[in-house]
C-alpha cells in the first residue's frame, strides 16, 4: 500500500445534536471564534465551545421558539429574540438573566450589540427596528422605513450608524444620533439576507437571495462593486480582519472577493450545505450550519486560500492590484474614528433624552410581569469544567500571559493505491471521503480525531421522555432533574437531506437464502441496484421534455403563456422551476401572472416538500408587495362613467385575485400555528395579508 500525505484546505470538524427539537438559529462569537450559541424550537438557548462535545450552559425562559441570537463583543453576554417578540439578555459569566425586554408585535429575526455601549438593536418580521438601552430596560427609539421583515442589523465600528437588510430588497443606513435614515440602497432584486461593515474604511457589504454580493461606498453612497458568481443565496459575509478582502458563504461554497476593480480571488468548495455564520480565528475560517436538530462545524485553512492578486480569464495572477492611494500613500477612503470611551458618549445620551420625549420613544419602567419573567428564566450550567475554563478566568487577575488558542489541526489527505480497511477496536481511525477544491472526490481521509456526532448532556434526543440531571445555578451542589419530550415530526420533507427519500438500505442486504454465506451474488446485487431505475429514467425524461417545451415558449418572450403551459402539465416540479426564475426577477411579474399562479401557490403552500413551500411563500410575498395596493385601489374605486374596457378587464382580474388571496389567507392562518421557521414564515405572510380582512 502506497500513500501520499498532503494537507487539505477545508474539512468538517464536528457534528452534534444541539437540541431536542429543530434548531432555529445560531451565532458564532466573532472575537474568539471558539464560542457558539444555538436556539431551538424547544425554546432554549444552548452555549457551546467549538470542538467540545457537550453543551456548557443551557438558558431557559423563552416560551416560544428562539429565532435569533447574538453575542456582545466581549462574548460575556448573549441576547436572544423569540417568535413571540420578546428579548432576553443573559450574563454568561454570572450565569444569570439580566433583562427581559418586550416590545415587538411579531417574531424577532435580527439582533446586534452596539460596539462600545450598553445598547442593542432588534429587527422584526413587523418591519420595525428598535434601539434598546439595556441598563434602563427600555426602548429608546424606533426606526420605520422597511416594508417587510428586517433580516440583519449591523452597527458601524464607530457606533454612529446602523445598517439594516430586509426582505423588501433594500439596505438602509440609519444615523443613531440624528435618529433618521441617511440613505437607502436599492440595487438588489431580491431579499437581502446579510450586511457587514468594513473594519476600517467607509465600506458596507451586503448579500442577497438574488445571488449577488454588493459593496457600497459610505462617503458617496453609491455601489462600487457587485459579484455575479454565487451559486445560491448569500447567507453570510465577513471581511478579513485587516480589511484586505471579503469572504462570502453560500450553499457549499466559500468565495473570496476584492473590489476596485471587482474580482474573485478564490473559490473553495466546502460541503457545509446552507452555511449560517462565519468567524475567523488563528487564520482559520470557522463556519457553522444546521439541519433539523443537528449542528455542524467546518474549518477552512485561510493560509491555503488566495486572498490577493488579479483575475484574468479565470486565472489568478500573483501580482496584486494596488488600492487607490493618495500621494501620501494612504487610502483615499475615510477610516472610522473610534471613540476612546466605553460608551457612545454625550451625543447618544442627548439622543436618548430626545427619544424619551418623542412619540416614537417607547421607554417604560420595569413591571412586575417582567420581574416575574426574569425569575422564571434560568441558566443551567451543564458542564462545570468547561464553564470555569471559558468564563470564570476572565474575572480573576492573572499574573501570567493569557493562554492563546491553537488552530485546529488539519487532517491529512491520503492517496491510496489499494483499499484500506480499518478494524474496529479501542483505537479505531475513521475513514471518510475527501472533496478537493474543485468539488471532486479524491479519496479517503484517515483521522485520529474523527468527526464527532454526539448528544449534549442537556438534551433528550430519544423518542421517549428522558430525565436529565443538571446543575442549578442558585444551588450548585443540588442536582436538578428535568424531563424533556421531543415534538412530533411535522411531516415536511426538508430541502437538505442526508439520504434520498424512499431508499431502503435493507434492499441491498443479502436475503435469507444467502444468510449463511453472507455474500450476495453479482446478478442479485445488480438487480437490487437497478430496482426503480427505469421508472426514474422515464420520470426524468418526461420532466426534461416538459421543461424544454416551456423553454421554447419562454424564448418567444411571452412569460404568461410559458407559465400557463407549465400549469397545464399538472406537474408542480415544473411550476416550481419556473417560479424560482421569476422570483429572482420581480419585474417579470404582471397582474395576468397572478391570476394563473395563485391557485398553484395554494398547492405549494400545502406541499410536504420544504422547497415547494419556500418557493410558494416567496411568490406570495412578491404578489402581495407589488399588486395588493393595485387590487385594493381598483376594487374600492367608484364606478367609472361610460365604457372603459381596459378598466373593466383590470377590475375582473383584481376581483379574481382577491378571491384567491382570501382562500390563501385561510391556508396561511392554519399553517401559522406551526412552530419553528415554517411557522415564522407563515406568521410573516399572515401579517402581510392582514389588510384582506378590512
TrEMBL record:
Keyword Cell cycle in annotation: yes
Q: Which GO terms describe its cellular component?
A: centrosome; cytoplasm; katanin complex; microtubule; spindle pole
**Which PROSITE patterns does this chain map to?**
WD_REPEATS_1 (PS00678), WD_REPEATS_2 (PS50082), WD_REPEATS_REGION (PS50294)
Q: Which Gene3D superfamilies match?
A: YVTN repeat-like/Quinoprotein amine dehydrogenase (2.130.10.10)
Matches recorded under SMART domains: WD40
Short name of one Pfam family: WD40
State where the protein is found.
Answer: Cytoplasm, Cytoskeleton, Spindle; Cytoplasm; Cytoplasm, Cytoskeleton, Microtubule organizing center, Centrosome; Cytoplasm, Cytoskeleton, Spindle pole
The record's comment on protein family reads: Belongs to the WD repeat KATNB1 family.
Subunit details: Interacts with KATNA1. This interaction enhances the microtubule binding and severing activity of KATNA1 and also targets this activity to the centrosome.
What this protein is called in its record is Katanin p80 WD40 repeat-containing subunit B1
Q: Organism, per UniProt?
A: Cirrhinus molitorella
